[in-house]
Amino acid sequence: GQNIDQPTEMTATEGAIVQINCTYQTSGFNGLFWYQQHAGEAPTFLSYNVLDGLEEKGRFSSFLSRSKGYSYLLLKELQMKDSASYLCAVRDSNYQLIWGAGTKLIIKP
Amino acid sequence: IAGITQAPTSQILAAGRRMTLRCTQDMRHNAMYWYRQDLGLGLRLIHYSNTAGTTGKGEVPDGYSVSRANTDDFPLTLASAVPSQTSVYFCASSEVGAGEQFFGPGTRLTVL
Hints:
The complex is a heterodimer.
Chain A: E1 3-5, E2 9-13, E3 18-25, E4 32-37, E5 44-49, E6 53-57, E7 60-65, E8 70-75, E9 84-91, E10 97-99, E11 103-108
Parallel strand pairs in A: 2-11
Antiparallel strand pairs in A: 1-3, 3-8, 4-5, 4-9, 6-7, 7-8, 9-10, 9-11
Chain B: E1 4-7, E2 10-13, E3 19-25, E4 31-37, E5 44-49, E6 56-57, E7 64-66, E8 76-78, E9 87-94, E10 102-103, E11 107-111
Parallel strand pairs in B: 2-11
Antiparallel strand pairs in B: 1-3, 3-8, 4-5, 4-9, 5-6, 7-8, 9-10, 9-11
């Protein structure tokens, strides 16, 4: 079967760095997405990786290792507004997105 | 209209009633999707459409139907609602086979 695993909840301090991991087992791989979802709102796109390595976009970076079925999202200089759920999704061989349950990130002052 | 709109925002529905959730996009995306999101679970695909006139079943299609008469609209119908269909429903769109999906604001549905 297809499976996306990520931690249920993480806590970090304002101004610090946090890494959210995602491991996947899917039928085929056509890219990995990270989305941010604030409580009561829709998911919004953060990053996309299809090749191995690190993609940097401002305070957010995303890493992919296809051989290990592993990705992480790195958030630097955490701000209170970063409190949200972070969703990992893999596009499978049918070009459909398979979603993890999300990681709720709590930022403390 | 900017992006994707969904209606209604929320709804309380008696079991056994028929309900249509509406979704409209103005980005001229070919592909559209319906997901449900339940606490502790990832987004689950109900139905999708890669182009007007075609639809496909996702992971959890039972009890739901869709139609795609044109590019912009993708309504989701619950023929006879059951309490297990209580959920938050998101509509999304994208270019086929590439790019990220853009989400509507969601419909919170409660079936009693």
